[in-house]
From TrEMBL:
The keyword Metal-binding applies. CDD domains: alpha_CA_XII_XIV. Residues 22-285 form the Alpha-carbonic anhydrase domain. Residues 343-355 have a biased composition (Basic and acidic residues). Keywords: Glycoprotein, Lyase, Metal-binding, Zinc. Its EC number is 4.2.1.1. Pfam families: Carb_anhydrase (PF00194). This is Carbonic anhydrase. It comes from the Eukaryota. Its cofactor is Zn(2+). One of its GO terms (molecular function) is carbonate dehydratase activity.
Amino acid sequence: ATDALLFKEVTGNIIVLEKKPSNQRLKGLNLRPDGEKAWPKKYPFCGGVFQSPIDFRKDILQYDSNLLPLEFIGYNVPSTDQFTLINNGHSVKMYLSPTMSVRNLPFEYTASQLHLHWGNRNKSEGSEHTVSGKHFAAELHIVHYNSEKYPDIAAAMDKADGLAVLAVLLEIGPFNPSYEKIFRHFWNVKYKDQKVLVPGFNIHELLPDRLHEYYRYEGSLTTPPCYPSVLWTVFRHPVKISQEQLLALETAMYCTESDDPEPLEMVDNFRNVQEFHERLVFVSFHEGELYECSCAKKQCTVICVNVKNWNSSPAALCHYKTIKEKKENYRSAKTNPGQNISEIKDDLDLSSKVG
């Protein structure tokens, strides 16, 4: 009953905001005086393990040759169709066509919505995920649900295999006409609960080049109730938008309704990076030269990479366990809290790490 109530609050966009002066910034979705640290009091999952976002440090990355390029179905939406863009009080969200889906994941996932996270005009470091501690200017999330097992996103949201989110890191560069197809409508959703119709376009245009290179890990929603139900795909290469486009994102919208006497700017709506808790992050790319490694205990298929700045020899020790077996151990630990995840980390094949 508690989870159902929490879910209703999120899907119904019921967010309690304390009225503050317009110069009071929101830090990391700091919608309450004590900020995101208070989330676990009302939303227990927010204080659990397997939370998102995370920092992609070099020492936690493991190359997986089984990760395939994603296949995008129905992403080219004709202009005769329309998306609904809404200010939901903590982000700007665009509902997507149910004919859109993505494959080459454990299941087929149907698109539900996309939204953005950003910083503020004084410090444009609004991405949720970071790479070696580096923030990007903003971050786009395209949210999908497991349509092979669940009838809709409401049924999938709190399931361990329920959601798949594609994340695109944004940085400053030249003007981006594809993103402008969304950004030009921000002034029509200036205040909470305002909506506008956006002509259909090819959502694939919002994605970066070299889509076959990405980070993959199991994590959570980055806003309450923080269900650990997300299979994350964070693309390695960022997309560029102009400084003017970023400024529009950072300044156009408010968390409050149009008749609020003390409007609250919608800024810094990103969650801070979370504890890693010795999870596995798999990557579809590698750097350095490939070496064939023999396994001491039994035959196995492992790719060893000579990583720059490593002190170890190219013929680094290959553990006998395959990547597939490690994934199975990890998922078992995720669903069985009594299993020691640190033991799984000790079992990792260090020769598969990526620099």
